[in-house]
Amino acid sequence: MVQYTLAQSPEVILTVSGKDSAKAREKAMDQLMELMDDGKLPTDLADGFSPKQFIEVKDPGAIAAGDEDSLNQAVQILSSLATLKLKVQESRTEALQVREQLDILFSDDFVSEEEVIQLKDGFKVLKTYAQANLRYREARAQAEEARIVLDQALQSPPEPKTHKGKG
User: Fold this and answer.
1) Could you tell me the residue ranges of all domains in the chain?
2) How many H helices and E strands in the chain?
3) pLDDT value at residue 92
4) Which of 30, 66, 91, 127 has its CA 20 to 30 A from that of 60?
């Protein structure tokens, strides 16, 4: 059995038989469509949704039992996401400036050797930004699951009820 959830609605759990696979995700997609058709899905998926966007729920009981390894891994994934986000933000402005300069290669205007050399130096900036941005987007998808794990671990237990007696 494998369970999936949605980043938009972590409370929705879809259970299908088998292991995580394209076929299992398609079965979960069918369940999701049924929920949507029945009006039982609390999330609007107006932008669309694909089976690849499902987040696999890995042994939710392990977190309830205090599985420190899962919790540590979740925190590590979120920490990596934060680092990647900073890296992307730092290189974005410079990369966009280089990207604007690329247009000179596609014009019929004269280009000096100095401009070409400057542009070639900028290719490294573009490559670094593009790679960091791809890694960030992949890490963000993983971090959605880590956030769910962390949220589950942070849920406080219900407060004990006290009996107020006369006396």
Assistant:
1) 1-57, 63-156
2) 4, 3
3) 92
4) 30
Q: Dig out the tokens for 31 from the structure.
A: 């369940």
Residue 87 has pLDDT above 50, yes or no: yes
For residue 14, the cross-strand partners are 4
3-class DSSP state of 70 = helix
pLDDT band at 95 (very low <50, low <70, confident <90, very high): very high
Confidence (pTM):
0.48
Q: Can you tell me the distance from the alpha carbon of 138 to that of 16, in angstroms, rounded to the nearest whole number?
A: 25
More confident residue, 27 or 44: 27
Cα 87 vs. chain centroid, distance in angstroms? Answer: 17
Nearest CA to 97 out of 55, 74, 126 is that of 126
- 């933000």: which residue's tokens? 89
63-156: in CATH 3.90.550: no
